[in-house]
Amino acid sequence: MFRKILIANRGEIATRIIWACKELGIKTVAVHSDVDRDSLHVRFADEAVCIGPAQASKSYLNIPALISAAELKNVDAIHPGYGFLSENAHFAEVCRACNIKFIGPSPNVIRLMGDKAQARRAMKSVGVPVTPGFDGIIEDEQEAVEIAESIGYPVIIKASAGGGGRGMRVVRNRDDVIAALPAAQQEAQLAFGNPTVYLEKYVESARHIEIQVLGDELGKVIHLGERECSVQRRHQKLLEESPSTAVTTELRRQMGDAAVKACREIGYYSAGTIEFLLNSNSEFYFMEMNTRIQVEHGVTEMVTDTDLVREQILIAAGERLQLSQDDIGFSGHAIECRINAESPRTFAPSPGLITAINLPGGPGVRVDTAAFAGLFVPPFYDSLIAKVVVHHRTRDLAIQRMHRALDATIIEGIETSVPIHQQILSDPDFMAGNISTRFMDRFARKASDARA
Ligand code: MV4
């Protein structure tokens, strides 16, 4: 087992990882930028190292500074959290070369899944459903039109190096293709330094359903059911839940089996997520694989009574997975609301000083946060400041519990997304479980109509 772990992250996920380490009796080293000197993750870790100025490229993304800190403090492993270097295959390789265990899957798997066109091919070759499409990359306009017409409109142009919606264009006819192709290539070049794009059939008004997996280094893989992540705005998830109102026990088994089979075939270990599109006929298609612990892992932990970060650490230490598929039960319903420091109207970031804060508690309420009264929320990083997660026997009860929890969530000094969540939870379509990736567009229209 590891003696000491460095956490290459900040905010709520850094504290979440420290909690798991404490329960395992593992010492922790926090790293922080200049502006994060007084952060909670620094306070709760056993040791801390300043790794650079505020700008992430000079601190939390600074591989030499992180490795120096790891060597200085003589750690056995690095947990990358989510974001930052968590899906950087090069960083995982550098850790390996320095004899520091990277808590995540192998560099090769990170690299494979980071290339979305390659990931699609890999999934298809092991029998995971992908949408009809073209397995090569697009060379020119004429080829794009030919392929689009052979697939049949609508099709979607995606960046190979992409993910999270950047460099993506939905096209519905020949003219669209001609206009969108260079735009998508340019956007991909700008965002990822790689203009490569591919084409596939566009699945209309689908749900975003993702399957949580755990695999060990001995080849055992299990799944922990789904998370419903369709409530998103501009590819930023706002609220997640498990189970999905669209997933039956049988569909969960099918999607879970597909995810497990895929992970076995690619030699996946650690925690991971396979994202699927689910259409209204209950047909599902591979979208992307996330090779990290995700923001929304807590909803799965609540319905399956597991600790995914603890499992990740044990797996990285080379232990065999104690959990078997038959041990995984799904109990009740969990919902997570992401509380961001942002304007509830414009969604613009709202950094600043938290002058007062009250966080909810009581039965079935979990809050993951590194916020406190007196914290200055810096403008340099992601605006997520807290995750309120509730659990109850049924979805309706979980919604009521979330209303109660958000009513007690008082954050003064900055604007937050709490009011958005209160509105979403009161929306008739949301309450009926009638959601798709178009939910927030309809929601925004309804809100502006109501104001007019
Ligand atoms: C799709 C799709 C429909 N059909 N692929 C969004 C980000 C990236 N993960 C891929 N995405 C999509 N891929 C096909 N073939 C629709 C989306 C999509 C989406 C997916 C999940 C949640 C919100 C979304 C919003 C717009 C588009």
Q: Please, could you describe this protein's structure?
A:
By secondary structure, the protein is of the alpha+beta class. Helices cover 35% and strands 24% of the residues. It is built from 15 helices and 22 strands. The strands form seven sheets. A five-stranded parallel β-sheet has the order 3-2-1-4-5. Strands 10-9-14-15 form a four-stranded antiparallel β-sheet, sandwiched between helices. The protein is globular. The structure holds ligand MV4. The site of ligand MV4 has 16 residues, from strand 8 and strand 15.
Task: Offer a quick outline of the entry.
With 452 residues, this protein is of the alpha+beta class.
In one word, what is the shape? globular
- Tell me what portion of residues adopts beta-strand conformation: 15-25%
Task: Tell me the span between the first and last alpha carbons.
Answer: 61 Å
Alpha-beta classification: alpha+beta
Radius of gyration: 22 Å
Uncertain stretches of 5 or more adjacent residues: none
Largest sheet: 5 strands, parallel
- Count every beta strand, where a strand is a DSSP E run of 2 or more residues: 22
**Total helical segments:** 15
- Helix content range of the residues, please? 25-40%
Mean pLDDT: 97
What small molecules does this complex bind?
Answer: ligand MV4
- Give the strand order, joined by hyphens, for the main sheet: 3-2-1-4-5
